[in-house]
# Entry
Amino acid sequence: MSALAPSTAEHLAQHLAQPVAQSLVQSVDWLAIAPPTIAAVVALVVLVADLFLSEARKPVLGWVSVAGLAAATLMLLPLLDGDRSTFCLTGDARACSYTADHFTLVIQFLVLGGALLAALLSVTNIEDDQRRVPPGEFWFLLLSSAAGAALLPASRDLATLIVALEVASLPAFALVGIRHGEKRSSEAALKFFLSSVTATAVSLMGISFVYASTGTLYLTQVAQRIQHVDGQLHTLAQTGVVLTLVGFAFKTAAVPFHFWVPDTYVGAPLPVAAYLSVVGKAVGFSGLILVTVVGLPSYADVWGPALAALAALTMTVGNVGALRQQATRAYSAVRLLAWSSVGQAGYLLVPIAAAGYTKDTHKAIGSTVAYALMYAVVNLGAFAVAALVGRTKSLNRVSDYRGLYATNPAAALLLAFFLLCLAGLPPGVIGLFAKVTVFSAAVDAGLGWLAVVMAVNVVIALFYYLQWTALLFRAPEGEPARHRVPAPLTAALALTGVLGVVLSGAPQLVLRFAATGLF
# Structure
């Protein structure tokens, strides 16, 4: 017996250790994680290459970054066949940290496509401002932020969600203040940083409360366990839900967490402002959707009314702020686009709030995603025209756009089209279509009062969008300035223009693409 005891004990120890070892070893689906991984790898390549390239060859880094973002976007095509998950718990295939489903792919397409267009704008901007903007650092930060933004919609546990959110946000702070010797940029970056860090701290506290209540970070398990929380922990869970929502509301620029937007957009280089207006919002809204609809559906009675109130407040404050912009004020064009983006965030919040009141969450979330796709295309296009005008009019006032049609008819027509899309007027059919889908989501959910508030805000927005559009076709004052359009800027204008026209010709494709198979 004494001779057999050691071997028996050893066999027992091996048997007990085997399940533990199996639970720690996970296979990685490299194809599923390819889009954010490519962006991250190219960021490191650019950072290292910057050390060895002479100043004359630094522009190569921009084109390498553009190629990397294009490759990351193209890697979404092999993933269209079906849902793929990786980094999953053994024994529970639904508890995964990374899932590449239809929702993930749509948001990743929006994020990487938006980053690609922002990169095309940045190539020209860096060439014009090379002394104040270090190319290597700029491209590294942009690609790193894009990698985090692409990771976030695939995150299915709260830890990965927060890490992705910070990977997307931290480089953005530096991008805002990257121009050397620019006091306005430094102040904008500091305001953006301090307010964002505060929001992240609030979110982390909320997530810690949710974890303390449920004992898990996986969204699918949180959704199951939070329904059966002990009565003593019920208040803790509710507090955790509210605090988590506050953090993501900041990222979406929802009122009253919007105060950083106008100064940040004005202080940042224009391509960075364009990037934040689209990719930054996509990050916030995708995180908000995952936390509410996937992780906390049983608390819809908490987050539904809260998001509905935030939506009404955000669209109203944003549109009134845009309406108050003076055409002759310095940087008024960028400020108007900034306040407009706050108003658009209110429209994007409406279907998410509606998801808390209806059983058809797929349709409601599909409306938000469809609207986000429309907004991304036309808002990036508007910023591209603003970057073109800013080459000769450094103060970028709305009044500087007077008579643009006389000097550059193509740019004037494109900007008019983009503004009409944002207003929801023909020929910007895609804008009208997107607003109708959001409006119907509110009505179907029984939120008639929110639909009325949205209708009033659409009318308010018509005034400043049409006022700017009319200015483009008036007779120019003084000698008209000719605008030379560099090739990267031309490519960005052409891409956004073609996409806007195609989507206006077949708007029904957007909702089908956005809503099919979500989650």
Summary: The chain has 20 helices and two strands. The first strand starts at residue 84 and ends at 89. The radius of gyration is 24 Å.
